[in-house]
Design goal:
By secondary structure, the protein is an alpha/beta fold. It contains five helices and eleven strands; from the N terminus they run E-H-E-E-E-E-E-E-H-E-H-E-H-E-E-H. A six-stranded mixed beta sheet has the order 2-3-8-9-10-11. A five-stranded mixed beta sheet has the order 1-7-6-5-4, with no helix packed on it. Helix 1 packs parallel to helix 2 and helix 3 runs antiparallel to helix 5. The termini are far apart. The mean pLDDT is 87.
């Protein structure tokens, strides 16, 4: 078994995490890490462009004691301190739940959840997700991630569908994910739902730093 331990923080962790996500996407993705100017603050953000999102299957998840284990098609991802016994994939990625790597990983899974909620076959997905300041308190970090997701994430989905009404009806099932833009390449129409609340996001993070 090959165990890849991702660092707690730093650029090496960002790069290693994006390499891991590239593997989870069957190498059909373009991933980048940068900073976004958010109401005068520079917050890190991660961008995912998935070229064949329909082929990506969300993992089976189980929890053992304090560890969370995601079983993907090609590997297993463990959020915890050590690799538990009984894993069956040859490749394992290990990261602490309150690390920068875990924050990026959760942002990736949330981006995939948008496709699941939309329930329409997509040709491409592009997501830009803000990452919050890290915190040793996992509860606070998860709260910050939720705020960044709901108030600061931006998504664009390209798809083919003969019926615009079907697309608009499907969009009603997707909410609480920032701004969502759907581009129907069959009819050349575009719809936008939701919006970002950058000023409110920064003000809330400041009060909880």
């Amino acid at each position: 078994m090959e165990v890849n331990r991702l660092d707690q923080s730093g650029k090496t962790s960002w790069r290693a995490t994006l390499d891991m996500i590239y593997l989870l996407c069957n190498e059909q993705a373009d991933l980048s890490y940068d900073y976004r100017d958010v109401n005068g603050w520079k917050l890190p953000c991660v961008d995912f462009r998935l070229d064949d999102p329909a082929e990506i299957v969300l993992p089976r998840c189980r929890t053992e004691d304090v560890d969370m284990i995601d079983k993907w098609q090609t590997c297993e991802v463990v959020l915890g301190d050590e690799v538990p016994e009984g894993l069956c994939r040859e490749t394992v990625f290990l990261m602490q739940a309150n690390s920068a790597a875990a924050s990026i990983y959760r942002a990736f899974k949330m981006s995939l959840s948008v496709l699941c909620e939309l329930s329409l076959p997509a040709e491409f997905l592009w997501s830009s997700v803000l990452l919050p300041p890290l915190c040793s308190d996992l509860g606070i970090l998860l709260m910050r991630e939720k705020l960044c997701w709901e108030w600061g994430s931006i998504h664009t989905i390209w798809l083919h569908n003969e019926l615009d009404e079907s697309v608009k009806a499907a969009m009603k099932h997707v909410y609480g994910c920032g701004e969502l833009r759907i581009q129907n390449m069959t009819t050349a129409n575009t719809w936008v739902a939701g919006h970002v609340e950058e000023a409110l996001l920064i003000d809330t993070i400041k009060r909880n730093v």
